[in-house]
Amino acid sequence: MFKHSTQCPVSAGAHEALTNYLADAAPPSVEFAIVHVIEDRPVSNDIAETLGVTHKSPQAILIKNGEPVWDESHWRITEQFLAERLQEA
């Protein structure tokens, strides 16, 4: 799950990293979803509440069997980070 703010330059950089990862990686073994946190605030809030993960933006959350495995935010969301962490998924 990628939570993205369309008005934040840090989020734009993380979104670019995700886009590059998806373009360059072998077909991923996980499904991806993007939530635009400003435009879809109720969905974003529900994700935080349901998963028990404090909201951040940008934020990447790996969910397995309905539970958060890890979450990361801001400048830590890089193409290399995604490749390393999702290879383990």
Notes on the protein architecture:
With 89 residues, the chain is an alpha+beta fold. The chain has a single domain, classed as Glutaredoxin (3-Layer(aba) Sandwich). The protein has helices spanning 9-24, 41-51, 79-87; strands at residues 2-4, 34-36, 59-64, 67-73. α1 (9-24) crosses α3 (79-87). The longest helix has 16 residues, at 9-24. The two termini are 13 Å apart.
Structure keywords:
single chain; alpha+beta; 40% helix; Glutaredoxin; 3 helices; globular; 89 residues; four-stranded mixed sheet
Strand order of the largest sheet: 2-1-3-4
The helix count comes to 3
Distance between the termini: 13 Å
Number of domains: 1
- What are the low-pLDDT stretches, counting only 5+ consecutive residues below 50? none
CATH class: Alpha Beta
Radius of gyration: 12 Å
CATH architecture: 3-Layer(aba) Sandwich
Coarse structural class: alpha+beta
User: Beta fraction of the residues?
Assistant: 15-25%
Helix and strand run: EHEHEEH
What is the 3D form? globular
Question: Would you count the extended β strands for me?
Answer: 4
Q: What level of helicity do the residues show?
A: 40-55%
Say which CATH homologous superfamily is assigned: Glutaredoxin
Helix and strand arrangement:
Elements (H helix, E strand, L loop, with lengths): L1 E3 L4 H16 L9 E3 L4 H11 L7 E6 L2 E7 L5 H9 L2
Parallel strand pairs: 1-2
Antiparallel strand pairs: 1-3, 3-4
Helix pairs in contact: 1-3
What can be said about this structure in brief?
With 89 residues, the protein is an alpha+beta fold.
